[in-house]
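Why do we care about 3D structure at all? Because function follows from shape, and shape follows, mostly, from sequence. That is the central idea of this module. The next example makes it concrete: a single protein chain, its amino acid sequence, and then its structure expressed as tokens.
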Amino acid sequence: MTRVISPRFDFNAQLFLDEYWQKRPLLIKNALPSFQSPISPEELAGLAIEGEVDSRIVSRVNHQWQLEQGPFVDADFLRDGEWSLLVQRVNEWFPEVDALRGCVDFLPSWRFDDVMVSYATDGAGVGPHFDQYDVFLLQGAGQRVWKVGARCDVATPTIDADGLTLIEEFDADQMHLLSPGDALYIPPGFAHWGTAVGESMTFSIGFRAPRLADLVARLSDSVIDSLREDLLLEDKESMRVQARPGEITEQHLINARTAVFNAMEALSDSDWFPELLSETDEEPPVNEEPMTPSVALVPNQRLLWRDMGDHIAVFLSGRKYRLLLSDEIMLVTLSSGQSLATSQLTGSQVDVLQEWWSLGFIEEPQVDTAH
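And the structure:
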């Protein structure tokens, strides 16, 4: 089995969190010295042919943007001019790409979304735009010029260019030329526009936050499940002589709001948040094969845990497990994307892994990833 070293960016992580994370962009020169792209343009194109892979080609013809959705065929890549191929979740197909999440392993693993890989011909890009997630743009091959503008929001004027949402008027505050091993951090909402200098490959390590609407909905569901049906709203001090029939007073609203907030505070447990974060879009197929001597977490799974003092509460694919405090090393190893040798584990740990194996949460690693 091939051994892959998971790299780390060469910079001050705590300074980055204090001064830049979700605040302002940061150019990280030589973030990975001597870095070479772990995959080739041909391998990326081969992945874009697969039907279950999310891919697209963005081109510009006669100053007009064009968007094509995959899957593609070989002939789609035999074109001239400025065009870019973008493939989502390449980390789920290439362990060498998945190892790039280790570049910023000081960030919570539950924030990690995917590694998108893009190939671009000379002068190509996807136009001026902004995203609602944090991204580290790691240059893998060739060079790319990045222009960075101001922070945008829903009020920023945009245009629809054949399905691409582009900024109508883009003004650059910064301009950076990235070579292999350089990285550029872009916080949510900041305008940016990358243009390839020669043939170029970029690895976008993306981190996405859960929507507040989803958090409120899950918390509300958790509270509702715990509420007794016979509990009613109590009027308490909100009742006054009703001078005007039908009126809802400010005190009525305050009383109702306080009752709801008190119920959420008293009845919500601490499980709703990690349960939500650990959920995946699809249930993995059941694995009936014998468990291999070495295992690793399936790339699209999120393994989360909380130290409860006398045990560890573990959350995986929306399920909750109660594990021993001595299981921490096993959990940390799997959560970081590294492989685990089952021969070094206790009987109870093997039993847990056996269940996760049969449910499709862990798999045989294609490579041995280490830091």
